[in-house]
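subagent[fold] <- orchestrator: predict structure for attached chain, return tokens only, no commentary.
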Amino acid sequence: MFSNAVGLLCASLFEFFKSRNKPGHFFFQYVTMALDTVSRKREDLLILADVHPELDAWVKANGVPPRTIPSDPVKARELFLKMEQRFADTFSPKDVSDVLVENITVPARDGYAIPVKVYRPKNATPPGPLIIEIHGGGFLIGSPLEQESHCLECVKEFGATCLNIDYRLAPEYKFPTAVHDCYDVVAWAATNASPLGANLRKGFIVGGSSAGGSLADVVGHLARDAKLDPPLTGLCEIVPPGLRDNDVPKKYAPEFLSWHQDMLYGLSSEGFTSLRDLYAPDEKSELYNSFNWPDSVDGKSGHVGLPPVFFQIAGMDPLRDGGLIYEKRLREEDGVPTKLKLYPGLPHGFNLSYPQLDISKVHERDTIEGIRWLLSFSKEN
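subagent[fold] -> orchestrator:
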């Protein structure tokens, strides 16, 4: 009820300040929290890309950051690793003496040993939920370090066991290797929860950021179709692609604006396309574009029966409207419980790129609260 009240308040503020500001002015400077509801009118969607005042001040003081990723995967990974380390240093709990961390491997379907980092309480009595994290990086870069702070926080906050997947990357391993690696870990975890110190009746959640959010969504569909037992109880999707740019159904086109919108900072749509080319997906496959998951044999939508989904979406992100449309479809058309947090005026992965900003701290707190919301659907919560 409180969340709905906040959403209505934010929507009212949205209309109030929009009506009193000049076109293009960033009225969201008056709203200090993330939004959990947003108008889907064209003009209201477009203004979500107006630069957040805190980011604007940082850029004026420090200069405009690059908007492209080096074409050499080795150099790109080196740069991204430095960013991940800064993010982990900023947001990881200071005292982790009560957390047990170990490295294991999980067998993939092709015999590869998938590296997985496990985090759990040193005293796991009683066992807590199981949370599986998938890092981002456009299927090309990134490492489990990106999700380490989330894993540590989940151990301390929820007494959870957390698995952090180091799936294989493109261009060395193209589509759908990443999908298979992530699903194989999730399926393995379903039958190995007890040795991991987890109780899946308390929660079985898969989450990730960017490419990791896309992979989490695909894994959620695969697990539902396979009737994974125990089933997943929640999905956490941070800046996910949602509806893909190259296959937009006509009825959603009026709300699909961000891909062609001029975003001042952050990764551009061209940057996303270059990453996609290296991943080399079958763009018609539901394992890449889960928005088009096929209907069931009895004619039900391909999304019916998914577990609840928590979304975090950035306003100055080419992927923004794909994520918003997907969230709306799940909630309104498919009966899937959703929770939304929207960050106007901020680029894709801003929490990772600018961990020093106060709004990034808000984002990270929201992630933990979103996971708490997902856990509320579990049988023993």
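orchestrator: received. Logging for downstream: The longest helix spans residues 2-20. Residues 35 and 275 are 29 Å apart (CA to CA).
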